[in-house]
Write a structure and sequence with these properties.
mainly alpha, 3 helices, about 85% helix, about 0% strand
Length: about 90
């Protein structure tokens, strides 16, 4: 099970990295459209908004669900406070 979760974490990590990079590229598309101006800028912005961003949103949603499934299979608990015994507090 450990090997499976390690592979799934690897896929999740690279997938999220690619989606975030693609989302960042939209910024440069909008900047290029701002510089170009006119009808071409409108076409570029429309393409980014209607074609590219929905793909990024769907991919990130699937990857987040994939990551949650991976955490569930690994038995990890994220964003939960850990209760420490008084002895552990004294050691620090």
């Amino acid at each position: 099970m450990k090997k499976i979760t390690d592979v799934l974490k690897l896929i999740f990590g690279y997938g999220i990295m690619i989606v975030l990079f693609a989302g960042g590229l939209t910024f440069f598309g909008y900047i290029a459209a701002l510089i170009i101006g006119g009808e071409t800028a409108t076409a570029v912005c429309t393409f980014i908004y209607k074609s590219f961003i929905p793909i990024i949103i769907y991919a990130s949603t699937v990857l987040i669900l994939f990551g949650l499934l991976t955490m569930y299979l690994a038995g990890e608990k994220a964003l939960t406070p850990e209760k420490k015994t008084p002895r552990e507090k004294e050691e620090k």
